[in-house]
Amino acid sequence: MRTTSSMEPNHILREIRKVLDANSCDYEQQESFLLLCVHGEARPEGEATGEAAGEGRADLVQWEMEVCKLPRLSLNGVRFKRISGSSIAFKNIASKVANELKL
Question: So which residues are the signal peptide here (predicted)?
Answer without folding.
Answer: none
